[in-house]
Specification:
The complex is a heterodimer of chains A (149) and B (677). Chain A is α+β, with helices and mostly antiparallel strands and 149 residues long. Chain A is built from 5 helices and 5 strands, in the order βαββαββααα. In chain A, a hairpin with a 2-residue loop joins β2 (42-48) and β3 (51-59). Chain B folds into 3 domains: 2-241, no CATH class; 263-410, Alpha-Beta Plaits (2-Layer Sandwich); 435-669, TIM Barrel. In chain B, 59% of the residues lie in helices and 16% in strands. In chain B, α2 runs antiparallel to α3, α5 (108-132) crosses α7 (175-194) and α18 (522-533) runs parallel beside α20. The chains are: A alpha+beta (149), B alpha/beta (677).
């Protein structure tokens, strides 16, 4: 089965208080890591300005099933599929699902800036956005996600 | 009386009781199996007959044997094994054959023959069994009771057969079993009454009662085992039937493709819900759900993709409902839901719209559909299931009118709106089919010389009962209904044909709708029309609006360029009212701009309007474009427009739009505009 990759964005329809939102994101990430591991999927999830940007890649069947499951999830609002195309190789092979979000730490100014930039790239150039994602995650030294969480 | 005397005095009553129970249970089971045999067809009918025979024969035999063990005889008793076994075989085969005969034909004689066979088998078993009963004494038979027993067994068995077809309310269908049991019991005790033993003297009497009891219990157990086997086979069959019935019911009430409730099931549930409205149930809602663009999925990706999408739609709908009610597929891409609590209806509808707006990934393809939802609330909007669904459909129609991918709550006014629109649609289709339109022509003049330069063709629809219908109403409708191409072609052909009869210096301006411009076949259509009518391309001016350029500017650019190459003049209509993007003037091959009448009407009184007109005229002139001022109504407007460089003028001051036949006289009559009064 040929490899495919997709990129979608959605707005988080999370609970009102911030810590509840964090918990929910954590549960989403943990859940998708476990599932992706089983299905041979890899990918990354960014959270910028209340928007999820998720790249997901792997065998077509597993990818389509997982995306269908995401479509059933009302925690996403304004879900938009930005790109879906065959891929010759994986871009996020290191991570079953890694997660990167903006936060207020001054040390992360650069990361925050890069995330902001990505936020705008996504709507204009999906392929470039995914290259930026990969670069950003590698620069962050993101380890295989299961070890992180 | 001798019979009762025989039972009471010659028998151990415990054995009689045990025999009676065995007989009763056996008869009841036999009857059920018999009924089963009657209901069955083909081979299984023989199987059921055999099973009925086994149970009936065993019951008869056990009844006889247990009762015989309870028979108090003054002489020593033994049983001959072979004959005893033969007697049970006769009972089984005989009664089985009897049952089979009763099923062969519904004719009375056949059924009587079958019943008699059953009865005589009972008798045969009994008397063969009596041969096996060896008693040390002188045996005597009373022929009266012997014949009586035969007649009773046969007669009552026949009655049992006949009762099988009767609907008896008194015994609740147990009459055949009771008759069968009566037949067995009567035969036995009449037979025993006929039977007499005189013991030989000097021989010890009686049998070993303990061994006898053990034997009785063993026989009864074996007999009950057989009867139990019959019961369980009946139950197994019954359960299989129930489960296949429930499978059938599921098939009848569920959609095969999606597994969700089908139209029938949905309607039944809705009817139940409506019937419960009297019981002060809370309000509930009916959602009519229609997929947008589903037909294109089937057309472009094939039915297997369409089917997969429908399966996933069903699944997503279940998620959107989230247990709030029932969702079903009414057919095709038409779904509906019952939301138990009307207060949740809008939230559910919103979820339905949202979840179906998300893309479907099928075999590496992205399938984008969407859904529109109409909501009707019971009992507020209707109490009858059909009315509720119809009102939900009306609301659905309104949701589609509102641009799809949304939901609407039913409102009473929607019905009239929908009816009015449907009537208008029908009228428009009819008008298009009959080409029931007319063209009016509004002349245009040269601002310097006052001479006529040509005319703009204006479409009119004069409906028999509606009167004049505004193009602002019917043109958008025609676009939605896909009729605009035909109307446009008719307008173009008619206008060109008319213009071909005019003086060769006069041109004709024809409006194009955005959809016509988006059609890549437009240049070919235009060239065909020009060839047909003989009008030179230079005399045709096509008017487009900015919105036509917005939608698909690459396509528009290539179409306009091709038209321009043919020699057709392109003008930009209503300039100043839309985006008025200067880049259009630069990018597209435009020859002329028409300044909208709203600016012209204000030139004398409103400084801003005057400035805009001057600016547009100036800009256009400098870009090498020709300028037309529309809506000139008085001399001031004419003078102002002429002064600032509008080379063509159009308006009531020169002429109202005229029917085709009045145009040549108008062109011939006055070539200069009158001075303003």
């Amino acid at each position: 089965m040929p490899l495919h990759r997709l990129l979608y964005t959605s707005e988080a329809r999370l609970s009102d208080n911030a810590s509840g939102a964090d918990l929910m994101v954590e549960s989403i990430v943990a859940h998708s890591q476990a599932n992706n591991e089983k299905r041979g999927l890899t990918g990354a999830l960014l959270y910028v300005r209340g928007t999820f940007i998720q790249a997901l890649e792997g065998p077509l069947d597993a990818l389509e099933n997982t995306f269908e499951r995401i479509c059933h999830d009302f925690r996403h609002a304004r879900l938009t599929l930005v790109d879906m195309s065959p891929a010759s190789e994986r871009m996020f092979e290191r991570w079953s699902m890694t997660y990167l979000a903006q936060n207020d730490e001054p040390a992360r100014l650069l990361v925050n800036r890069d995330l902001e930039e990505l936020y705008f790239t996504v709507s204009t150039n999906a392929a470039e956005a995914m290259r930026q994602m990969r670069g950003l995650l590698l620069g962050e030294g993101k380890k295989p996600a299961l070890e992180v969480v | 009386m001798r019979v009762i005397d025989c039972i009471v005095s010659d028998h151990n009553l415990w054995f009689v009781l045990l025999a009676a129970i065995t007989c009763a249970v056996g008869s009841a089971v036999t009857t059920r199996l018999w009924r089963q045999a009657r209901a069955a067809t083909g081979r299984s009918r023989y199987d059921w007959c055999f099973l009925s025979g086994v149970v009936a024969g065993s019951s008869i035999w056990a009844t006889h044997f247990i009762a015989m063990l309870g028979y108090l005889t003054p002489a020593t008793v033994t049983f001959d094994a072979v004959t005893t076994l033969a007697s049970i075989a006769v009972a089984i085969l005989g009664s089985g054959l009897g049952f089979l005969i009763t099923l062969l034909s519904p004719r009375l004689t056949v059924r009587i023959a079958g019943g008699a066979t059953v009865g005589l088998s009972i008798a045969a078993m009994h008397y063969i069994g009596m041969f096996a009963y060896r008693v040390d004494g002188i045996v005597s038979w009373d022929p009266l009771y012997l014949w009586l027993s035969l007649a009773a067994a046969a007669g009552i068995s026949v009655l049992a057969v006949l009762a099988l077809d009767k609907r008896d309310t008194i015994f609740r269908g147990h009459l055949p079993a009771m008759l069968l049991m009566t037949s067995i019991v009567l035969l036995h005790f009449l037979g025993m009454t006929a039977f007499g033993v005189t013991p030989l003297s000097g021989v010890s009497s009686g049998v070993d009662s303990e061994a006898f009891s053990a034997m009785a219990i063993a026989v009864a157990l074996v007999a009950l085992l057989i009867v139990g086997t019959g019961v369980s086979s009946f139950l197994i069959d019954d359960r299989a039937r129930v489960s296949s019935e429930s499978a059938l019911h599921h098939m009848a009430s569920h959609d095969a493709l999606t597994g969700m409730a089908n139209r029938l099931h949905f309607h039944v549930t809705l009817a139940e819900r409506c019937a419960a409205l009297d019981l002060r149930q809370p309000e509930f809602a009916v959602l009519a759900i229609d997929l947008d663009r589903f037909k294109q999925v089937n057309d472009s990706h094939g039915h297997h993709v369409g089917d997969e999408v429908l399966r996933r739609v069903a699944h997503r709908l279940e998620t959107a409902l989230d247990g709030a009610g029932l969702v079903g597929r009414l057919g095709g891409d038409e779904f509906a839901a019952i939301v138990d609590d009307a207060a949740l209806a809008e939230a559910v509808a919103g979820r339905v719209v949202e979840i179906l707006s998300r893309p479907f990934l099928v075999n590496g393809m992205i399938v984008d559909i969407g859904a529109s939802v109409g909501i009707a609330v019971g009992p507020r909007d209707a109490t009858d299931p059909r009315d509720l669904l119809r009102n939900a459909d009306v609301a659905l129609y309104a949701a589609k009118e509102a641009g799809r991918a949304t939901f609407r709550m039913f409102e009473g006014a929607m019905v009239e709106e929908m009816q009015a629109r449907i009537a208008l649609e029908q009228d428009l289709r009819r008008a298009v089919a009959r080409e029931d339109f007319t063209l009016f022509f509004q002349p245009q003049v040269d601002s310097r010389t006052g001479a006529f330069t040509g005319a703009e063709a204006l479409l009119r629809w004069d409906h028999a009962t509606r009167g004049m219908v505004s193009p602002a109403i019917f043109i958008p409708l025609a676009e939605q209904l896909g009729l605009i191409g035909r109307i446009g072609k008719w307008v173009l052909t008619t206008a060109c044909r008319e213009a071909a009869t005019w003086d060769p210096h006069l041109s004709i301006a024809v409006n194009l709708s955005p959809m016509q411009l988006a059609d890549p076949r437009l240049p070919r259509t235009v060239s065909q029309v020009l060839a047909e009518t003989g009008l030179p391309a230079e005399r045709l001016e096509l008017e487009i609006t900015e919105t036509a350029l917005l939608a698909n500017d690459e396509q528009a650019l290539s179409t306009l360029s091709e038209l321009r190459r043919m020699g057709v003049v392109i003008s930009l209509d209503d300039f100043g009212t839309g985006y008025s993007s200067l880049s259009y003037l630069h990018r597209f091959p435009i020859d002329r701009i028409k300044i909208d009448r709203s600016f012209i009407s204000g030139v004398a009184t409103d400084q801003h309007s005057a400035t805009i007109v001057r600016a547009i005229a100036h800009l256009g002139t400098n870009l090498g474009l020709k300028i037309t001022a529309e809506g000139i109504e008085d001399g001031d407007q004419r003078d102002f427009s002429a002064l600032y460089g509008c080379d063509n003028l159009q308006g009531y001051l020169f002429s109202r739009p005229l029917p085709a036949e009045k145009l040549p006289p108008a062109f011939a009559g006055r070539t200069t505009a009158p001075e303003a009064a």
